[in-house]
Fold this protein.
Amino acid sequence: MSDKEAIRLAATAVVLRDTPSGLEVLLLRRHEQLKVGGGHWVFPGGTVDPDDVADAQGDRMQAFRLAAVRETEEEAAINLAPEALQHISCWTTPAHMGRRFETAFFLADGQGMEVEVDGEEMDAHQWGAAADFVRAHCSGELALMPPTLVTLSELSQCATVEEARSFYASREIPDIHPKLADHQGAVCMLYGGDAGYCQHDPEAVGPRNRCYLENGVWRYEFLTS
């Protein structure tokens, strides 16, 4: 593996809150000039640094949790407790995509917390319903990366923080290694559980768990049969 393809560890916090109108999710906008995801709306997070690893004392998952807590505080001025984070997924950047990350996603309760972005890496924030964010992305109003889009699509099924916690607790935590393919001229990103994942064949008949890049916008497709 070349240095360009070396995988760095990272963590992100999916911060939720209950409101009278339903479940809301926190998104931050990455500054346009950033090399990775500039201009995209993301969950707070970043790379695991040496201090996180040292403080975790050999506990790999704890290092991820500490990174999620530290990055959320740095980017959004929100203080989270590592032990309260619920691990919900892990995403690894596909091969041959330049900078690669293995990112642990954690659910966090942000009820009553005030957000203040750092103004450097993140230049704006907004709370909103997951389904609204997905619709805004599909219409080209909101730039999202596939892991964010998939997570928001899942959260759109939940009405409260407790429902979201129960949803993720009821399934095995997925370790997602996307496979890129061309499907009828469109970029297709296959995930585990998709009928075409193992054979790297987007034409395979059966369940769907994939994203398509269409006119610069990702579209998530999930079908169980």
